[in-house]
Write a structure and sequence with these properties.
- By secondary structure, this protein is of the alpha/beta class.
- It has helices at 39-44, 51-63, 88-102, 113-120, 158-175; strands at 23-24, 30-34, 71-74, 107-111, 134-138, 141-148.
- A six-stranded mixed β-sheet has the order 1-3-2-4-6-5.
- Helix 2 crosses helix 5 (158-175).
- The relative contact order is 0.18.
- The mean pLDDT is 97.
- The structure holds uracil.
- Uracil binds at residues 34-38, 41, 47-48, 50, 52-53, 74.
Length: 176
């Protein structure tokens, strides 16, 4: 299930250039969920192709896999104005698409606060949950869920970067 090209289920349609659909290998069963498309993603129609995407890809490569080995998506498929966090009602409008992407997943990695809010209902500090495996229920099925730092949060913070590297090692272990 995918949004129609003229999707207007929430107000984000007003500012978008392209709807950003999942990218990578849906058969891997491993899905990274980011927050929302930014400027580069909105222009290209592909998730994580801007600055955060470069960080994400580099960390995957360091752990021995690539973005083509997993599926990458976002809580919402259209860029919020000025890159603000997506509102709960926008995530709710996009949720059926996310749920259909998560069908058959064996591991979901939630990149940052918005993904953890949307999928775990978590509102606390990321440091308390990062890299602690838990589970979420999607359409009546439990799926393992790994909360992780958003790549953008790790750019100027070494400690967070090593936590995201740890996330990638966990995922690499799953892919082996
Ligand atoms: N690009 C995306 O696709 N998602 C994010 O969360 C950030 C940048």
């Amino acid at each position: 299930m995918r949004p129609e090209p003229d999707c207007a289920l929430c107000g984000l349609c007003a500012g978008r250039t392209k709807i950003v659909l999942p990218d990578g290998n849906p058969g891997s069963g491993i899905i990274f969920v980011g927050e929302a498309p930014g400027e580069s993603e909105d222009r290209e129609g592909r998730p994580f192709v801007g600055r955060s995407g470069k960080v994400l890809s580099a960390m995957m490569e360091k752990a021995g896999f690539s973005r083509a080995d997993v599926l990458i998506t976002n809580t919402v498929k259209c860029r919020p104005p000025s890159n603000r966090d997506p509102f709960p009602e926008e995530m709710a409008a996009c949720r059926p698409f996310l749920e259909s992407e998560l069908e058959g997943a064996r591991l979901v990695v939630g990149l940052g606060k918005s993904a953890c809010r949307d999928l775990m209902g978590y509102e606390g500090p990321m440091g308390a949950v990062v890299n602690t495996m838990c589970s979420i229920e999607i359409r009546g099925r439990r799926i393992r869920f790994l909360p992780a730092y958003h790549p953008a949060a790790t750019i100027y913070n070494r400690e967070l970067r090593s936590e995201l590297e740890r996330t990638m090692e966990i995922v690499a272990g799953e892919l082996r």
